Amino acid sequence: MWAGNAWRAALFAVPRGRRAQSALAQLRGILEGELEGIRGAGTWKSERVITSRQGPHIHVDGVSGGILNFCANNYLGLSSHPKVIQAGLQALEEFGAGLSSVRFICGTQSIHKNLEAKIARFHQREDAILYPSCFDANAGLFEALLTPEDAVLSDELNHASIIDGIRLCKAHKYRYRHLDMADLEAKLQEAQKHRLRLVATDGAFSMDGDIAPLQEICRLASRYGALVFVDECHATGFLGPTGRGTDELLGVMDQVTIINSTLGKALGGASGGYTTGPGPLVSLLRQRARPYLFSNSLPPAVVGCASKALDLLMESNTIVQSMAAKTQRFRSKMEAAGFTISGASHPICPVMLGDARLASHMADDMLKRGIFVIGFSYPVVPKGKARIRVQISAVHSEEDIDRCVEAFVEVGQLHGALP
After folding, report:
1. What radius of gyration do the chain's Cα atoms show?
2. Which of 139, 391, 163 shows the shortest CA–CA distance to 273?
3. Of residues 332, 315, 374, the one with CA closest to residue 73
4. Each residue of 62-89: pLDDT tens digit?
5. Residue 207 to residue 374: CA distance in whole angstroms
6. What confidence tens digit (pLDDT) does each residue in 134-172 have?
7. So which residues are the catalytic ones?
8. Closest among 222, 167, 232, 164 to 197, alpha carbons compared
């Protein structure tokens, strides 16, 4: 007892400020060690500063002249479209800068309800609900929908937001091998004992540019009484004949139960995400989805921009149709030069390099040649699978694409990635 009391006396004899400084010094040491490990592994991520609008041609701080941007999610080139910008300005003027509230208190305006109805019509679903991001939509869905009586079956390479959302729920969790339908079927057989079974997959996988086999997934779901959820962030607006996404591309729009997607990529590129699907599900999410209940409403300007982007897309599919030829041009020229390009027919074109430092150094040298691309390495992708992810936009010209390929060949030869 005396020893314990003496220890406490000695501890509290140290001034409180000094104890706090000691704890802070300990924290700094731990953090610096972690950061040094990231640098040493060659996976440090720097942020280049853009000094212009987003688009195929940009300006970057510290780099003279114009730069060709080949790494934005600006698939349709709508991020700086004059009509989209004007719609944002109009919404800002009419509805203000923000709501200072969550939706259920005093944060729902007519433009929010109009955009949700427009999203539901676009996807041919019953209803839709807006979130600050699709990360929030994925964080809100599984916990609200699934209980300990249910099961969720997830592709092993699903986006981090799907993985994190599934972690939050109490359902039984099954992970099937990437695009492996035999493994999914085995997991579905195992999951027959649960009340609900939900198969969760990305429509298009953002790091590899491959597309989920939704026809087979839906066939298995029907056979084993499961529901299908698809994250369409890298498909909405440009995959399928009219840009509805992978379910339209593969002819299974009537078989996919729930879609989550984003307003922050092809649909204006600002921010925001959503869930669209059965009306009762959307009503439940309004009551239980924590990211919806505890996050401020989307700002009016963001809502206005996204709504106009959807209008432009539904008025004409000309932009959508231009994507395939431009994507094929880049992929075929890069493969002819000797590069390995992952995926197939998707505007995400990962140039596979393997080594993290090689990917980082090549990306830096591409910038010196006027091409903005980024190297991706662990933990964003598996170790040994480092790459430079190129993304084709509808507003890239053929000359832009050819210039990008020429720079890749030059840099690849410089670093020994090409003979």
Report:
1. 24
2. 139
3. 374
4. 888 899 999 999 999 999 999 999 999 9
5. 12
6. 999 999 999 999 999 999 999 999 999 999 999 999 999
7. 206, 234, 265
8. 222
